[in-house]
Amino acid sequence: MRKEQNILAISRRTQHDQKHVSNDAKMFEMVVLQLGKIGYAVKQIDEDALAEYLDSSRPGRIVSMAQRPENTALLAQLEAEGCVIINSFYSVMNTYRVFMALRLADQPFPFARSKILSSLVEEELENFEEEAYTMVAKTLGEPFYIKRGDIHAAHPNDVVCIASRENFANALEDFRERGVRAAIVQEHCEGTVVKFYAVSGKKFFHAQNFETGITVEFDTTALEEQAERIAGVLGLTIYGGDVVITPEGDLLFIDFNAWPSFGSVRDKAVPVMVKAIVEVFDEERMTVDTLSDTGETI
């Protein structure tokens, strides 16, 4: 039993898409419940309540779905103090699309071509937008996608297919109105879009057709191996993403995110997640115990 071990569980802020919220909430509640059943004392809060909570408490272990930029300094400080967080907030930041584009730029992974457009989102210069659209269309082809550059699944217009100069201007204007200050553009890849969910260490992997939700029938070994490598670079324990299977059978990843909802497979995935979480926390505890026994500073 682990009654002496407390965990802070931070749920994700309510999203615009209520179906997505419900899936996130159900999955996270299942994780919290199972951690409690095996002996952890779990305190659950919404990420909006984190700052207030930290005024009076300093947790040593956290399971977190938080992804808002305003929590960056708070969680980074906790990690610097030795708090173990799953997923590490540094790894969550790596999945912000602007950072991911930089992080993976020099890596040999089959990722769709992406360009960072942070300045375009901030500026309201018509001529600049015209020139930018021409440049992007020439570089990536048409159509292409513009995607919010930081958090995932906050609004249905965070990912927009761009087929004209007018589409481009409207998407940027919408980002400005919602206070989104960073974006990427990404090439459109022909093929079948597949969504996948995973727990690192090849403990769990599921892939399904993005449109139908039906489990894919092809051998996912190559997909799992590539996803695992990318997750390792990004530092993710619990993750998911989207990949295009081209007509030639090649893989082109188009998105990667921390702690997705796991959709229809969460009943199978949650026990694996909990086991992975316990392994990380137990490894941390053994390290602390070893340092204590040797007299080293913790």
Outline the secondary-structure elements.
Elements: E1 6-11, H1 18-37, E2 41-46, H2 50-54, E3 61-64, H3 72-80, E4 84-86, H4 89-94, H5 97-103, E5 114-116, H6 118-122, H7 126-140, E6 144-148, E7 159-162, H8 165-177, E8 183-187, E9 192-199, E10 204-209, H9 221-234, E11 238-245, E12 251-258, H10 266-294
Parallel strand pairs: 1-2, 1-3, 3-4
Antiparallel strand pairs: 5-8, 6-7, 6-8, 9-10, 9-11, 11-12
Helix pairs in contact: 1-10
- Please give the CATH class of the largest domain: Alpha Beta
The parts where pLDDT drops under 50 for at least 5 residues are 286-298
- For the report, how would you describe the main beta sheet? 4 strands, parallel
Helicity range: 40-55%
**Relative strand content:** 15-25%
Helices, by number, come to 10
The H/E string reads EHEHEHEHHEHHEEHEEEHEEH
Q: What number of structural domains do the residues give?
A: 3
Report the span from N to C terminus: 24 Å
The best one-word shape is globular
Structural class: alpha/beta
CATH topology of the largest domain: Rossmann fold
Radius of gyration: 20 Å
Mean pLDDT: 88
Strand arrangement within the widest β-sheet reads 2-1-3-4
Tally of strands: 12
Please give the CATH architecture of the largest domain.
3-Layer(aba) Sandwich
